[in-house]
Amino acid sequence: MAPQYAFSEERFILCEGDDDKYFLQALIKQRGLPSFQIRHTGECNEKGTGGTGGFLHALNGIQAISGFDQVKGILLVTDNDRIPSSFKSMQRIFRRLSLPKPNNPTDVLTICGKPGALLLIPHHNTPGDLETLCWPAIVEKWPNANVCVPQFLQCTGADKWTKPASINKAKLRSAIVGNHEKDPYNTLGLLFKKGVLSTAHNCFDDVAQFLSDFDRMLGILAFA
Amino acid sequence: MIDSLIVKNFRCFESLELRDFARVNIIVGENASGKTALLESLFFGAGGSPDMALRLRGWRGVEPLVQLARSNDLYSTLWQELFFNHDTRRRISAEIRGSAGNNYKVEVFYGGPESSRLPLNGGLVSKEPPLLRLITFKGRDAAGKPFEVTPDITPAGLGPLATGEGAPVLFFSSTIRPPATETAQRFSNLRKEFKHQLLVDAVVNEFPIIKALDIEIESGTSYIFADIGGSRKERLGMVSGGLDKLVNILIGIQTTPQGTILIDEIENGIHHTKLEGLWSLFRQFADTNDTQIFASTHSWECLKAAQSVIKQHVADFSLIRAKSEDKRPSIQQFDGKQLLGALKQGGEIR
What we know:
The complex is a heterodimer. By secondary structure, chain A is of the alpha/beta class. Helices cover 41% and strands 12% of the residues of chain A. The model of chain A has no long low-confidence stretch (mean pLDDT 92). Among the domains of chain B are: 47-166, no CATH class; 179-240, no CATH class. In chain B, helix 7 packs parallel to helix 8. Chains A and B meet through loops of A and helix 9 and helix 11 of B.
């Protein structure tokens, strides 16, 4: 039984799942952005509870983990599935953790005594998720996705699903399954990790800029 | 219960002030980070005296038998490791504050009276023995009485060594087991008041190999013996070193009501499957006897084993991490909720 986790970097990203983690790692690496230690909420509890609810487990007790005192800034990355309910669910998490509640998605926060920020994906003014953000890059990689996938979803009726997040996921998975013969089971995150998908597309520019501006935004320019 | 500890110029701590302790305080940190020094600070703060200073030397591996001669070098060797950076020009101050009986303050310093010129060995010394630069222990004991002692080397030996009444504290060193007779005496005291059965039941329940515990005399010395179902009882230390340690600590908790138990490297000698039961028993006994525990550990298994007990009694636990950065020790404190949260997410907390 070995302990799994300690902080070793000054910037820390907590996101919702594997896909976000691998995407952000690839983005940072490929664009030469400042380094962040990245963990997803599913890694932060024994039950593997990920998603937004997992933030509660992941932030609870984080101060006691070795190396936390060296962390200078924390970024929480979450899907903006619905406006404004996604942001409100993050506000509830802050309240349950007795942390100062953000009033706006762009507020500089105090998270467990550290400066922090919230990054809503694809954008705080645009509803959606990582799949929404990545779709232009998927279409560039596999142009047929723009034609075949909508037809497939229409055929199955998935385009009429009530949850937009589920439609987005179905859309993206269909594109991967139909275009990646080597391993149709591969997830979005793994395709970024393996370099099949690139983060060079301009649909990722805003996120890259956000990470690049992170220190300045939080007023923590004086990194050693 | 000890509520706060204030220390200056003691061991590796130039200045240290801690408060908000819990019923069970788990101390972690790398080697040479100050874990043991923190336990020693609590011990010294609870009853610092010349005698205690000499005992601390023994627990740190110094041979207990010191060849005394009337020399400033030898005399200062006895005390210099107490001082921050071995700087004996400083003034040590150690103080605990807490509930009744748990208040004590001691200051240790040179600069008190110089010793008189007492001839050693009835005048066998050809020249006059030198004046010693003597150390003074001055403070207020657990009963609130002021004390001031200045140990000197005299023909009768080193003394005086005692101060006043210390707060009730027991220290379980990682290397030295308490004398078997002392433990047997404590167990006997429990038996006299019919309080031993709780301990025996707890041990039998956790270690089914044990059928009963008793006091027997071997070569004129009292020991705790265990009935392990064979044709004769076995001395507990012969059955298992870990079990012997566990029983020692449980007896210590039971016989130190409203006091403090300090345990260095709690996991030593205990099989990992017993660690959860150990935490459960220690917390339960501490709660029943209003005793406070400070226990250090290096072991992740040991910490992880505490998780379910902490979950049930989160307010009873705290985490204290000793750190050393650029050779400067620092202490971080976390409450039971933070400790539990970190454990639940597999965080490295040592």
